[in-house]
Each structure stands twice: as C-alpha cells, then as structure tokens.
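Example with several molecule types.
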Amino acid sequence: MKIAINVHLKKGVLDPQGKAVLHALETLGFKDVKDVRVGKQILIEIDTEDKEKAIKEAEEMAKELLANPVIENYEIEVKE
Amino acid sequence: MKVGIVVFPGTNCDRDTKWAFEKIGAQAEFIWHNENELKSYDLVVLPGGFSYGDYLRSGAIARFSPIMKSVSEYAKKGGYVLGICNGFQILLESHLLPGAMTRNENLNFISKFHHLKVINNNNKFLQNLKEGDIINIPIAHAEGNYKVDEDTLKSMYDNEQVLLKYCDKDGNELNPNGSIDCIAGICNKEKNVFGLMPHPERAMESILGGSDGVKMIEGFLK
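Resulting structure tokens for the full complex:
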C-alpha cells in the first residue's frame, strides 16, 4: 500500500521558502497569488493491504520522525 | 577535565572543537556515532556540521544514531552536554532541549562574526561571563531560526534557560535569522544541557578574529 505523508509548517510559523516563491511568482506575472506555503511529501510503501493498519503506522512515523510537532503539521493520504 | 566529542557522518567542526578544548587544558577525544556506550566524561559535546546531510530536518536523523541513546541517558542523569550549531539542532530534535529550528528568515546561509548578549550566567557554561556582557562569536548556519511556543518560552525565562541573544555591538537586539526574541543559546531546566548556534570554538585566538569563546568553554573547567 502506498501512503503519502504531507508535511507543512504550522500556520503561525513563518515559511520563508513560501515567501520567496510567492515573490518569484509575482515577478512571473501571477499577480493574483495571495499566499504560498512550501512543504514536503514523503511517499512510503508499506507491505500490507490493511488500510487502517497502514494509516496507523504512518501516523506513528509522522509523529516520531517525519514531522516535528513543534513547528510542523502533517496529513496522511492513502495513494493506492 | 575529559571531554568526549561525538562525530556523526557529516560533522565538520569536530577537530576545531577538540583543538579548542585542548587549548584550555582539557583532555578531548572523539566518539564515533556508532558506538553504544559512553565512557566516563566530564562533558559531552555535539559539534557543528551537517550530520546526515541535514536530510529531512537538521539533526532529525542524528537523533537515531546509536550513541544518542547513551547521550540522552547521560544527560538525564545530570551529565553536562553542549551542542554547538548542528549539535544544538540535534539536542532539539532529541527533546533534550525545548523548541525547534527552521530556515533562516532571509533563506541565506549566514557566516560571520555576530555580537551576543549574555542574558543569564547562572549556569556552568556562562559562569565566567557577566549578565549583560557583549561578546563576539562567529555564526554559520542556514537553519538557526529558533522557534518555541509561548508557554514554553515563558517558562524558559522563569527558569533562567534563555542564555544568549543576538545583538549589535552596543547590545541592542539585532536579529540575523528570525529567531524568536533573538535567542541564540539556551539550556534545559536542570542547567546541564546547553545549546547554541554560534561557534565558541572558532573564537579562541585574537589573531583569528576574536577570543571570546575561551571564557565560555572555560566555564566547564570549574
């Protein structure tokens, strides 16, 4: 089973990369872009067909290692 | 004094750190990250560098190196631990110090001398300095933008855990990287685990730009 874990900086935490990309997009002519947040996606293949088990494992992985709860939020997405 | 300096793959300030501690008369040796047990030391240093290439987040992978289990136990028993730059990031990721690091606000890697103000000297590390002292120490990092939630920050002030802040030569706050409250260095509640982004080991000789690092690390001798 393929699982995606999306990690982003929390709302209150300034995202300097997002800001830089926002300015670059404005320079390109995309004047209507209001906000950009840059995060990361971690794709994991788990050897199970049990969706619930896979999500539970991914939760643990995110909490323990893949995201830092002080500054980051994460979402788990089942790909297939 | 016997100092153990932990070397991770990607650590690059290990030799400078060893040299600095030997210069003040300490005995220093390297500890490879793959070792499981710590010998008897008076101080364990996690030096600067780019452990594991800063993959995922700075310090996030080094936390799982075999030696870190012993370092955590050593710290929890009251042993002195100092994390410099990447070492500080590893201590944050290991939950031995509160908070987290994010990218510098201006996205640049900043490498220069920077003034620091001593906020609290009621600890072993800064005991040779006075509160309000202004020192000049090199910084060299891309992820030194310190973040911590407000409740924790308040308790850190209450417990004298905020040790160093970035400032200009006159002591006015000057923020190079976006850190909350200009914080450059902290310690834990028990005051035996210290972390700072600036590099005292690079300020050991006036001929090399400054020697304010000597007073800092000499604190561990007493």
